[in-house]
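Final report, results section. Input specification for complex C-07:
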Amino acid sequence: SQQGEEDPQALSIQEGENATMNCSYKTSINNLQWYRQNSGRGLVHLILIRSNEREKHSGRLRVTLDTSKKSSSLLITASRAADTASYFCATDGQGAQKLVFGQGTRLTINP
Amino acid sequence: DAGITQSPRHKVTETGTPVTLRCHQTENHRYMYWYRQDPGHGLRLIHYSYGVKDTDKGEVSDGYSVSRSKTEDFLLTLESATSSQTSVYFCAISAILAYEQFFGPGTRLTVL
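Structure output:
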């Protein structure tokens, strides 16, 4: 069963705008991760946020976690064409070494 | 791709034939994983390994077997391929007790 569910499924914005993607999950977690996948490539780890953290930053990425609502958001600021990719959240609700991935948000940055 | 290779990268086979996919890592990470990625289902765990000769099932393990005789190699075998196993297969690795996974480039398998 899917643990993480991303919303929206697809997002198209203009270059320079901010992009926000959301992830909801069902069971208690120790951490939540975000990955990026460029077309035809493997997933690349972006950021990990632990259950006792509320917000984390990495460059132009900002991740928030609300464990009471079982949800997380990924914000990409000042988007670039190179940010065009699919973004997945992954949770460890079934054990630390068994990540469960959502179906992803397909982000398109228009020049 | 963090020292992970997969072979073959593309394969077309017929229903009923055996298929083996190979994942090779140069990072000496303990944990290795096989996922399949399908439209509408995201990424689903097939099997994983927590050491040489130590493996366990994932969410969608039926019809698949794995073997790990060396730290660096993790093999995924489809004993008798079916059309429902047409998918993109990804191998991933992670260090002991670390959560971040590193993914290989993927293998596109088509079963006719």
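Chain A has a mean pLDDT of 92. DSSP finds no helices and eleven strands in chain A. This concludes the modelling results for the funded period.
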